[in-house]
Specification:
heterodimer; A: Alpha-Beta Plaits; 2 domains; 12 helices; rod-shaped; B: Rossmann fold; 6-stranded mixed β-sheet; binds adenosine-5'-triphosphate; binds magnesium ion
């Protein structure tokens, strides 16, 4: 009975404090919201970064050119062999004729090249296989795998060398984005914690006299702390809600921009935040609340000694 | 009712505020504590509701030795003692009614008791018409009356008032003192710390004079002599 009575009173006092000190509440929540927005902007940039890297990785293809006189059967059998490798995502067959047409098209404005092509008798191109892998790391393995006695002598050229640099660059970039993102995230989270810590300390400091008065009137520590703790949770909940609104509004606004500048990326930030809403926002609310509770407990302690 | 035995208080690191004070205040007495600034009056008052603890000696309230009172027991003590301060110590974000009710709420009093007692004590101090006001909307005298009303909700056996008229003009001071006298007549032991010669002399009650943390005089129907 008395316990429920006290609990109800603590809840009532928390709401009273929240609204009767509206501006301090607004300021405290603004700091919370700004901090959360920073964290989410970071998540957004990270996700966008890895989506970009992934889409570039998916676009990397390696071509294997066969000698002009290689029969299509052998090339098709090589295609089948490659498709059987677990690292290979896809292999497309480009016939000698297609290769010639494509080459002509590519150089249609270059009379010298077209002329010299005329000089040569027949089709100088052989067929080719265009390979895409699940991961650019795997190309080395794939290109070595094709070096079997069966196919080796038909292979004219593998353009792996051209891609090697690109692949390692991408790999590098994606690693750097990942590490940079982690470092930046750690840094921001540290700042966020300090800011929230301090905001709550200020909010508690402002009420230090009240805390002393409550104690002198015969309140026990929990009765004094209760409303402050509850207020910390209210701040967290309200700030998370505001931040969710801001995130989705800005995603709506950013989405067209993202698809223009990062055209061709199969990525919707809005969808990403929707799919992971509970995890992302739920964990932010939890962390914020726990941090708020912990800080309040800590900040209020010294004013309770009356 | 209140007994101090060889009480000394030394603030850290080494400010002596009270030294070897022994006294006995009987139930129903009205005692004024006077003395120069820094003589230890507030320290004495704080010992009575355990805001400070004696460095040496014993402080006994009723038959409860609170010299080494545990932190968790302090609220229980304070719910039995009325306390009034010079600066009123009202909660700024609560109305008059809520401030008074708060003292009952911290003690777990039920809603019906609160509904009954709050208007009663506010009537005693003559503030029945200002229930919904916030402290900042009241005069100093009115704020002090709210604070007295709050101190009465538990019908305390002891009321400790540390310079309750310190911030008030003569007329309002007299109102407060009249209130304290009335409370005393109903049987509450009143300990009044005061600077005010006129008030103390007009009371014609027991006066304890502190000087440098020691009792310089203790006289029934005494006068303010410094
Ligand atoms: N918290 C404290 N820490 C250290 N010294 C203190 C503390 N409180 C009071 N003192 C010292 O103890 C002595 C007695 O102080 P006290 O407040 O009891 O005096 P007082 O008689 O109430 O004075 P006043 O009439 O000015 O209110 C003073 O020397 C004061 O400086
Ligand atoms: Mg004093």
């Amino acid at each position: 009975m008395s316990f429920f009575l006290s609990a109800l009173r603590i809840i009532r006092f928390a709401f009273q404090n929240f609204f009767r000190n509206f501006w301090l509440s607004v300021i405290t929540m603004s700091v919370f919201v700004l901090t959360l927005i920073t964290v989410n902007a970071l998540i957004f940039i990270n996700v966008l970064g890895s989506a970009t890297v992934q889409s570039v990785q998916e676009k990397v293809e390696v071509s294997i050119y066969f000698e002009p006189d290689t029969s299509d059967d052998i090339v098709k059998s090589a295609q089948g062999y490659l498709l059987g490798l677990s690292q290979v995502r896809n292999v497309t067959f480009v016939s000698a004729e297609d290769a010639l047409v494509a080459f002509k098209e590519h150089h249609q404005n270059d009379a010298v090249i077209l002329d010299s092509l005329e000089e040569i008798d027949g089709n100088p191109f052989g067929s080719a296989l265009v390979i895409s892998a699940w991961s650019p790391d795997d190309f080395t393995f794939i290109l070595e795998a094709i070096e079997t006695p069966e196919y080796q002598r038909y292979i004219k050229k593998k353009d792996f060398t051209d891609y090697e640099a690109v692949i390692s660059k991408i790999q590098n970039l994606s690693d750097r984005i990942r590490i940079g993102g982690l470092v930046l995230a750690g840094f921001f989270i540290l700042i966020a914690i300090l800011i929230i810590f301090n905001t709550i300390r200020v909010a508690t400091y402002v009420h230090r006299d009240e805390i002393g008065i409550m104690k002198l009137v015969g309140a026990n520590d929990w009765f004094v702390r209760g409303p402050f703790l509850l207020e910390a949770i209210m701040y967290s909940a309200a700030s998370t809600a505001i931040m969710v609104g801001i995130v989705f509004l800005s995603m709506r606004w950013l989405e067209p921009w993202v698809s223009t500048y990062f055209g061709g990326i199969d990525f919707s930030a809005q969808q990403f935040f929707l799919d992971n809403a509970l995890l992302i926002f739920g964990s932010q609310f939890l962390v914020l609340s726990v941090l708020g509770l912990f800080t309040t407990m800590f900040a209020i302690r010294r004013y309770l000694r009356v | 009712m209140i007994r101090l035995q060889n009480v000394s208080k030394i603030y850290k690191p080494n400010t002596g505020a009270l030294s070897n004070v022994s006294l006995h205040i009987k139930a129903g007495e009205f005692v004024s504590i006077v003395g120069q600034s820094g003589s230890g009056k507030t320290t004495f008052a704080k010992l009575l509701f355990a805001e400070e603890r004696p460095t040496k000696g014993e402080v006994i309230i009723g038959d409860w030795d609170i010299s080494r009172i545990r932190q968790s027991e302090i609220p229980i003590l304070r719910r039995q003692i009325g306390i009034v301060f010079q600066d009123y110590k009202l909660l700024p974000r609560k109305t008059v009614e809520e401030n008074v009710a708060f003292a009952l709420e911290v003690a777990g009093a039920g809603p019906s008791r609160i509904k009954k007692i709050v208007p009663q004590v506010l009537k005693i101090v003559g503030l029945s018409d200002k229930l919904g006001r916030y402290p900042r909307q009241l005069s100093g005298g009115e704020q002090q009356r709210v604070s007295i009303a709050r101190s009465l909700v538990h019908t305390p056996k002891i009321l400790v008032a540390d310079e309750p008229t310190g911030n008030l003009d003569t007329i309002h001071s007299m109102e407060i003192i009249e209130l304290l006298k009335r409370i005393n007549e109903y049987g509450t032991t009143v300990v009044l710390v005061s600077h005010d010669r006129d008030i103390v002399n007009a009371l014609k009650k027991r006066v304890i004079t502190l000087h440098d943390g020691e009792i310089a005089s203790d006289i029934e129907r005494g006068k303010y002599m410094i």
